[in-house]
Design brief:
The complex is a heterodimer of chains A (about 260) and B (about 325).
Chain A (H helix, E strand, L loop, with lengths): L4 E10 L2 E11 L4 E6 L5 H9 L6 E9 L2 E2 L5 H7 L4 E4 L3 H4 L6 H13 L3 H14 L5 H4 L9 H13 L5 E5 L7 H18 L2 E6 L2 H7 L2 E6 L2 E7 H6 L4 H8 L9
Parallel strand pairs in A: 3-8, 3-9, 6-7, 7-8
Antiparallel strand pairs in A: 1-2, 1-4, 4-5, 9-10
Chain B lengths: L1 H29 L3 H6 L5 H11 L5 H14 L1 E3 L6 E3 L6 E2 L4 E2 H36 L4 H15 L2 H15 L15 H35 L2 H8 L4 H29 L3 H6 L5 H10 L3 H29 L9
Antiparallel strand pairs in B: 1-2, 3-4
């Protein structure tokens, strides 16, 4: 397998406590890997370890290879060149993840300018295109607006536009639809799937929601208390789970025909 | 926006009228007879009744208050015949103790107070914000601990103690600075700067310490915001993250506090002006209180109140430009 992202025996420790133990998985170009688990299971820490954005005091060991190159142990300066460019990330709460003091246009442009440099006007045109691409109406006008002037779904679309502005090879999405209404959730998932099909980006999709994971992921990692308990194709994981915890998770989903 | 400002200005006038009313009421009912204070040592009952007549003190409360308010807008006359004194608008009263128009007394001393306040403000903003930002960014380092220790101490030193110590060390012992005095900017700006330097330092120290602590905690709060994580995830250089994404949210609340503090100081830095013998509004207030010169106390109180409410309005308007989430909806 020519893995775009290969994680081997990843371990994350905070204050002497293991929050991720021995996690191994791979994401290929054009592939979607879902990481599913309860809150506190170590999903987000896994993603942050890949980005090199672990909180102060956290240590990661093992191996994280991106495009064949080891990321762990790299300096912040080296990682910075990757972040937002080859590897991007979107977060759970788009309102607080966008800076309320600046227009969304500027926040998209600055990502491009930090990595590619060049003229502001070029970045501005690309930002307008990106906003149009993710389905923001009247992007030429809307780029001058501030985050609070958009709806929740639109804000997450803006985050996606920002993450994709440099054409990343890998997109990490940490619970990107959790804060959204169900109908908006479906639209954002559709958008992610379409953009991925168009660009061939690898997608690492983190969610606690099995239904969402089943819709978007090709393969699934199930995590519990920092432990990776299942790593299989989505079909296997949902139809023939090996680990009892995965079975328990699936059985915990309320089903309409069982409600009396 | 113009409608909002007009509404606020109207409210401002109402607040000032209310303050005017209450101060006037306090002096009317609670203070000793102003005629006695004016009369001096060689006082006869006849003289007192003359003064009462001239000041209109025999009039009922409402009439006197009305005369005072009308005087602010239209000017008024005190006394009659040969003793007649005209006080032109804006008439904040007439000090019979010093035979001076209160408005003129205030405007004469305002430049000194503005100089003291503005110089100190520049100093405390520079020191407070720079120290606070460094401490906030390097939370928990020896610099942060040392700075917070020093600022706690600095904020606790009473300004008159600091003033006397500085004066003793810098003027008497080392002779680096002249005694502070009422020096004009011209003809010698250097001397002007040296005479105001100590008042500035003394006044600025307490504020600088408070602003450093405020800025530090704002920076720390902002650093833990989700949008800071986004900025790092976008691969922005640390300098840009700090300047653009952290400082603006962290410093915007400082503007509010600064507006209030500065407006308050324009009413007179009482202790600093008195200790250094600077001829500003603070010293005027102190002298007026000591000699129970009621028209002056009234005037200074009103002016200080006006500065405070106007400062508030300016901060509110400024905020709509600084924080895009704050938008004015005319209601």
């Amino acid at each position: 397998m020519s893995g775009l992202l290969e994680v081997d025996n990843l371990k994350v420790t905070i204050g002497g406590q293991d929050v991720v133990r021995d996690s191994s998985f791979a994401v290929d170009a054009g592939d979607t890997l879902g990481i599913v688990g309860e809150s506190g299971s170590g999903k987000s820490m896994t993603a942050l370890a890949v980005m090199g954005l672990l909180p102060r005091g956290a240590r990661a060991s093992g191996s994280v290879r991106f495009d064949g190159q080891e990321l762990l142990g790299r300096t912040d300066r080296q990682l910075r060149a990757l972040r937002g460019d080859a590897v991007s990330m979107i977060f759970q709460d788009p309102l607080s993840s966008l800076n309320p003091y600046y227009t969304v246009g500027l926040q998209i442009e600055e990502t491009y300018l930090a990595h590619r440099g060049g003229k502001r006007a070029v970045a501005r045109r690309l930002a307008v295109d990106a906003l149009a691409e993710v389905g923001i109406p009247e992007p030429q006008e809307r780029r001058r607006h501030f985050p609070h002037q958009f709806s929740g779904g639109q804000r997450q679309r803006i985050m996606i536009a920002m993450a994709l502005i440099c054409g990343p090879k890998l997109l990490i999405a940490d619970e990107p639809t959790t804060a959204l209404d169900v109908t908006v959730q479906a639209q954002v998932l559709k958008l992610l799937a379409r953009l991925q099909a168009e660009t061939g980006t690898g997608l690492l999709f983190i969610s606690h929601d099995l239904a969402v994971i089943s819709q978007i992921a090709h393969r699934v990692v199930v995590m519990r208390d920092g432990e990776q308990v299942e790593y299989a194709t989505t079909e296997e994981a949902f139809c023939a789970p090996k680990h009892p915890y995965t079975r328990a998770l699936l059985e915990a989903i309320p089903r309409i025909d069982e409600v009396s | 926006m113009p409608r909002y400002i007009a509404g606020r200005l109207l409210g401002l006038v109402c607040i000032l009228l209310a303050i005017c009313f209450f101060t006037f009421a306090i002096f009317f009912w609670l203070s000793p007879d102003p005629a006695l204070a004016v009369c001096g040592k060689t006082c006869t009952p006849l003289r007192i009744s003359e003064i009462r007549q001239a000041l209109g003190l025999g009039q009922p409360f409402v009439t006197q208050f009305w005369d005072y308010v009308r005087g602010i807008f239209a000017g008024r006359d005190y006394g009659s015949g040969a003793d007649l004194v005209h006080c032109s608008a804006p008439c904040l009263g007439y000090s019979f103790q010093s035979s001076q128009n209160v408005w003129q007394m205030i405007t004469q001393r305002l430049p000194v107070t503005v100089t003291v306040a503005a110089g100190a403000a520049v100093l405390w903003l520079l020191i407070g914000i720079i120290a606070g930002v460094i401490s906030g960014v390097r939370e928990g380092t020896w610099w942060d601990r040392a700075a917070m220790f020093v600022t706690l101490g600095g904020a606790s030193i009473p300004s008159y103690v600091l003033a006397l110590v500085l004066q003793f060390v810098l003027v008497v012992k080392l002779q680096w600075l002249p005694f502070p005095g009422n020096v004009g900017f011209l003809p010698d700006p250097g001397l002007w700067f040296e005479s105001y330097l100590m008042p500035w330092i003394v006044l600025a120290l307490g504020y600088a310490c408070l602003y450093a602590r405020l800025t530090r905690s704002n920076v720390i709060d902002t650093m833990s915001e989700n949008f800071m994580r986004t900025a790092r995830a976008k691969g922005l250089p640390p300098g840009l993250i700090l300047r653009r994404h952290a400082l603006r949210p962290a410093l915007t609340p400082v503007v509010t506090i600064f507006g209030m503090d500065f407006a308050g100081l324009l009413g007179g830095a009482l202790i600093v002006e008195t200790v250094f013998g600077l001829n500003g509004l603070g010293q005027l207030t102190e002298q007026a209180i000591a000699s129970n010169d009621q028209p002056v106390i009234m005037g200074v109180t009103l002016l200080a109140a006006a500065f405070t409410v106007i400062g508030n309005l300016v901060v509110d308007i400024l905020y709509t430009y600084l924080d895009p989430r704050v938008r004015i909806t005319a209601s």
